[in-house]
Amino acid sequence: MSRTLTRLSLSVLALAATGALAQQSQESGADIAAETREILKSAPSGDAKEASTESSASEETSAPAPAPASQGDTPPAASSQPLPEPTPGGSSAQPETLRLLQNNGAQPVEAQQGTAVPASEGSADAAPASGSSSTTDAAPAPDAAVMQAEPAKSVPTPEAIETAMYEGGTLPDGQSALTVKVQVLLDRAHVSPGIIDGWKGGMSESAIAAFEAREGFEADGQLDQQVWDALTASAPAPMLQSYTITEDDMSGLSDPLPDDYAELAKLDQLGYTSVTEKLAERFHMSEDFLKALNAQAAWQAGTTITVTDPGPRLETKVARVEVRKGTSRLAGFDAEGRMVLNYPVTIGSSQTPSPSGTVEVVGVAMDPTYTYNPDVNFQQGDNDEVLILPPGPNGPVGSVWIDLSKPTYGLHGTSKPDSLFNAASHGCVRMTNWDAEELAHLVSNGVTVEFVE
Question: What pLDDT, in 10s, does the model give residues 65-106?
């Protein structure tokens, strides 16, 4: 099942309806985590239902079309080929995680970079000119917000992380060595916890619930002996590793990025703005945790630091994808119907919902550019002309755009991985750059994507 990466020409549709301005959550991370636990206790084992019909940002799918001047090299056009038939039973063939969030407050709409984006027919995340979404998350993820609410204490040491053992009960409150270890083990099992930061919260609980569902356990989102034994069954390698910063790591960084799109359009790239941001994403960590774990590091070439070891990328091809709206997670299945991966995602809000039904992958753009068109998009600042924003991991759709057969919708990365679980998109499905990059190498044209209500 092969697929060719292609650069797509995409532009974002208008988000112009009244009353749908993105706004930050008024709930603390601790409140969200508490609500999550209550929902997990009472929710049925199946998927929660929530209504949703979306419009996402407009994109022009034109692999053969000439690329804008600001785009990078154009890869070969995407190739389409038939997939194995989906396994019988559709979304009910394999249960997913329990409902963790509800639209009535537990999943607040994100704050936007620069001017707030009104919502209407098209998602601000929508398709890039070669792919960047018009929204960027600003609110911290629940796990990060919980961090702010907990009493300050020392960061877990590398020794404590390596020797952490489960001794009963749930994950410790706040930040702990045990939670770091569990997050790394989940990531190695290809059930992404989002960022690895050691903080207990909704993101970690959703990953545990997804792992439990995949393994056939009762999915309550809580660490127990059964989950621990399953995660540690293969005598895992050390959780951490040493890494020496190279000259290449120090190169290609961007200066602090402005909010104004006209200023962004003048740049060559929307790259990482620091070596710590770059390395944090490479090792699936929060930047704050990376810095705290290496408090004395000089952050220059030749410096050896301690980082997590999330393991290698998955190699199993994905034949079917399910976007689980009730759990804010994405599941990937192989040709035999086995769940092989599961990621946390940001989906559309009630004002700008994600699609319903089943669509297909029609192309993949790596390192995409993004077209802003005020005639069909939201109004960003005083910009009144079409702008092509350059590619880069800090672009509106991150480092990857996976184009879907429903115009203007896609699966893509984000410049703010720590905000995934505390925000809503304008219809597209947003995930960490590293999860999006892994998925991009496992899907091919024709892979079905089902939006499960």
Answer: 223 323 233 233 333 333 333 333 333 333 333 333 333 232
Compute the distance between CA of residue 289 and CA of residue 403 in angstroms, rounded to an integer.
Answer: 33
Burial of 268 (0-12, 13-18, 19+ CB in 10 A): exposed
Predicted TM-score (pTM) of the model is 0.69
C-beta of residue 273 within 8 angstroms of C-beta of residue 292: no
Of the candidates 190, 284, 412, 426, the residue annotated as catalytic is 412
Q: Which of 195, 207, 136 is nearest to 414 (CA)?
A: 136
**What tens digit of pLDDT does each residue of 385-426 get?**
999 999 999 998 899 999 999 987 899 999 989 877 665 444
How many residues does this entry show for the chain? 453
Distance (Å, whole) CA 207 – CA 432: 14
Cα distance between the two ends of the chain: 28
Residues 401 and 428 sit within 8 Å (Cβ to Cβ): no
CA atoms of 311 and 330, how far apart (whole Å): 20
- pLDDT at res. 120: 27
Q: In this structure, are strands 304-308 and 429-430 parallel, antiparallel, or unpaired?
A: unpaired
Q: Residues 6 or more apart from 294 whose CB is under 8 A from it?
A: 305, 306
Residue among 79, 61, 84, 74 at smallest CA distance from 2: 79
- pLDDT range class, residue 353, cuts 50, 70, 90: low
Cβ pair 246, 301 in contact under 8 A: yes
| Residue partners of 219: CB distance under 8 A and separation at least 6 | 40, 45, 95, 97, 98, 209, 210, 212, 213
- Catalytic pick among 190, 284, 426, 428: 428
Catalytic, 428? Answer yes
Reply yes or no on whether 412 is catalytic.
yes
Residue 136 scores a pLDDT above 60 = no
pLDDT for the residue numbered 326: 87
